[in-house]
Recover the amino acids of this structure.
């Protein structure tokens, strides 16, 4: 079977994702689409709006055949590590190609840019450091350094968020012994962070979440998601009484910040340069997560970098544990599949070099961070639902769509 | 001025406390009653039902002239340390005597018993250890050892909770260079832990809290507290929308237990013998604090010892910090006074060997644990009230009743 891999978060799944999954299948002439998906906490440093099984179901109902989880060690990470983790999992699953959406849409531009940047890395890195010394964030310094070095000679506009991610996928793929074929499709409408909803059927996930969390109700987003997703979101909300957002975890984060010593906070992943004092001070007077972020933000750190740091603080993840997990989080955690996905998995199972995990209970040690992520994620729910969600983490078999 | 000291928690202040304050003044022929009172977390390992300023006000309105705070380092502690801390503060404040309520009511019995126990401590301690090896709790082992050693020759029944506390006050007082005169009065009606309310005007604080927390409403306890206390409780409830109980802090405690590693928990004060595993396991499935305590309790630990341990976990207090604080928490934190109290304080101020703290802002380091206690205690309230309570910790002048 010919397979194409995609890297997703589905927060939540919407019509743009449907388009992406279909186009990926077509572009790759693939029989099978495999998605590697972030679990309960996402690359931008946020809790997922619904849990990972619900999101896996959305995927399977809308053009994906197999869904595996991107471990926490890679999912709540800057683009480089996120990409490395995701690409290596697709590769391990023997994908022939992988396909990502981008603002650019031409794979040649990605390949050329990756070559150019790699060839000049010895020149680029000192420039990045120079700009960082002026107090700007790392991504901003990268952009400035690239502009200085390449002026307009880089074919890819790396100030666009999906171009950046794609660029890192392509870079990660180039380091594999047997790289997959990289493919990209041009994203339709709605920019990545576009918050305003329009009358088009495609809106950004950011815009959709915003509409939901501002209590405009699920109805307000019905036109932007496939009918099965609308049903899933409604079912989730009715069952759990909640969709998840940072505000739900703010009391816990505030408690953690106030009850920890600065030196305890400084041991946690991504907490550097004394920002722990700034976080504690802001936590003292902030009355909501939004409030808190407004007080904490600085031009030295991107919004998402701060949010990722806060996820690591919320989960109490020490630097040491995360650095170790970056090396050792080597497993395939199956979240869901349809008949075709199952058949494929049976075929390749014997060639897998990593453990294939269908039930977490037997892999508590390996999955420690993912399990902790679920336990903390579940605390956003009422006790009964919370407990049942944690039991799912241990015992839920993969979602199977027949 | 002749002064008598009393050791209190006022959780909440009730008619029995009023009786105690009056009798203490009479018995000591004192011009002034000084209370040393636990702050936001109490000896039995519980959050106080209302904050310390409200409780200081209740005291001042009902027969107490001066209220100072027993530091966290002593208040959330077994009887020995609790007594040592409280007695030493009363002594520092130049009390001529101190007076406690007891089931026994005869001071001679306390003095004789203290002498007898001290004289036999070399025999008693091995017996206590013997009983503990059989897996019973420390207080139980103490009782068994005393029964074995003294049979019925000890004049004091040390199985009664107020007798035990008084016994430790007397012991602590004996170690002072210039001991105060110890006095005791017989407690009226209602046993210490008596939970059922009767038609008498005196009920136990336990019974009163139980009635309140079981949502019988404040009206149900009106007859057991002075009118000013009833007003204060009502005002508090209307302002903060809450009276405090462990259930309010259960989500935070559960989060702390689930997001900490066993070795992190094992570093905290009173967490010993691998009980951290038991706590984590119970936290996973418990849906309330009551539920959790039922799952955790064991005959090896008393209920209050476990609760105290949980307060230290909630506040994230390491063994090291607490052991240090037990030595270094040497200050007089003024919570409130009336005119007579103020006059007395002016008289003795120059003779105080410890700092007299009226505003915490200047003593952040010394008060670190008390401030943390307030910050965590405040998290039980809505954001706005929570913030104002924390500001009180830093800036609230003592309650002054004129």
């Amino acid at each position: 079977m010919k397979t194409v891999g995609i890297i997703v978060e589905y927060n939540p799944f919407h019509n743009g994702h449907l388009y992406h999954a279909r186009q990926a299948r077509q572009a790759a002439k693939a029989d099978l689409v495999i998605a590697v998906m972030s679990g309960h906490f996402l690359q931008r440093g946020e809790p997922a709006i619904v849990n990972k099984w619900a999101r896996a179901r959305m995927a399977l109902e809308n053009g994906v055949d197999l869904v595996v989880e991107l471990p926490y060690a890679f999912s709540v990470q800057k683009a480089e590590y996120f990409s490395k983790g995701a690409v290596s999992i697709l590769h391990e699953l023997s994908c022939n190609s992988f396909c990502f959406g981008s603002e650019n849409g031409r794979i040649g531009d990605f390949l050329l840019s990756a070559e150019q940047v790699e060839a000049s890395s010895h020149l680029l890195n000192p420039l990045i450091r120079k700009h960082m010394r002026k107090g700007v964030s790392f991504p901003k310094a990268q952009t400035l350094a690239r502009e200085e070095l390449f002026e307009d000679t880089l074919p890819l506009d790396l100030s666009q968020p999906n171009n950046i991610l794609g660029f890192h996928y392509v870079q990660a793929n180039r380091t594999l012994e047997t790289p997959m074929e990289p493919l990209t499709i041009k994203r339709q409408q709605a920019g990545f962070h576009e918050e305003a909803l329009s009358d088009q059927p495609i809106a950004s996930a950011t815009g959709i979440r915003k509409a939901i969390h501002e209590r405009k109700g699920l109805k307000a987003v019905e036109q932007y998601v496939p009918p099965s997703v609308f049903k899933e979101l409604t079912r989730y909300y009715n069952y759990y009484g909640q969709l998840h957002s940072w505000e739900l975890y703010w009391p816990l984060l505030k408690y953690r910040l106030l009850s920890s010593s600065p030196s305890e906070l400084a041991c946690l992943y991504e907490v550097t340069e004394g920002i722990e004092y700034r976080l504690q001070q802001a936590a003292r007077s902030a009355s909501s997560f939004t409030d808190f972020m407004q007080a904490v933000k600085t031009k030295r750190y991107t919004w998402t970098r701060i949010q990722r740091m806060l996820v690591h603080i919320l989960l109490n993840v020490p630097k040491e544990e995360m650095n170790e997990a970056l090396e050792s989080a080597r497993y395939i955690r199956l979240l869901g599949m349809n008949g075709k996905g199952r058949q494929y998995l049976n075929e390749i199972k014997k060639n897998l070099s990593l453990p294939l995990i269908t039930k977490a209970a037997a892999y508590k040690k390996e999955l420690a961070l993912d399990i902790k992520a679920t336990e903390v994620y579940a605390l956003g729910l009422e006790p009964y639902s919370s407990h049942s969600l944690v039991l799912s983490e241990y015992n839920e078999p993969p979602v199977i769509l027949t």
About this structure: The interface with chain B takes residues 251-252, 254-256, 258-261, 264, 284-285, 287-288, 314-316, 372, 375-376, 379, 383-384, 387, 390 of chain A (CB under 8 Å). Residues 210 and 216 of chain A are 9 Å apart (CA to CA). The longest strand of chain A covers residues 32-38.
